[in-house]
Amino acid sequence: MKSIDTMTPCPCGNDAGYAACCGPLHDGKPAESAEQLMRSRYSAYVLLREDYLLASWHADTRPASLRLAAQQPAPTWLGLDIRQHHVIDSDHATVEFVARYRLGGGRAQRQHETSRFVRENDRWFYRDGEIKA
């Protein structure tokens, strides 16, 4: 797990800082929306918080492990752009996003995805996603 200066902008792009943005969610506070959970999951990837990623993944689709520490070359995350947050009903939502990253010294790449989220027992969970071309 990487450390972060709590006064720097949050990895998800929020200028308020990690301590006021994704930090409380990583420490157990429930996300208020699917978009907030998506942002906190991006920050968790940046910070190698596999524990948080697995805990915020719905049990029906959660993998046993992500093996983030074993990724070679490890991605360097460059930024997150939330394109759309669509609330389907009080317990279902989608978030379309583009996450930019670089592997090793290679060119920047993009992951464009529409993720599906579900809320159970007042907690949002990532369910699955559809990669966009």
TrEMBL record:
Signal peptide: none
Start and end residues of each YchJ-like middle NTF2-like domain: 33-129
InterPro entries (UniProt xref): NTF2-like_dom_sf (IPR032710), YchJ-like (IPR023006), YchJ-like_M (IPR048469)
Family: Belongs to the UPF0225 family.
HAMAP family named in the record: UPF0225
Protein name from the UniProt record: UPF0225 protein ACFPK0_02120
Species assigned in the record: Rhodanobacter ginsenosidimutans
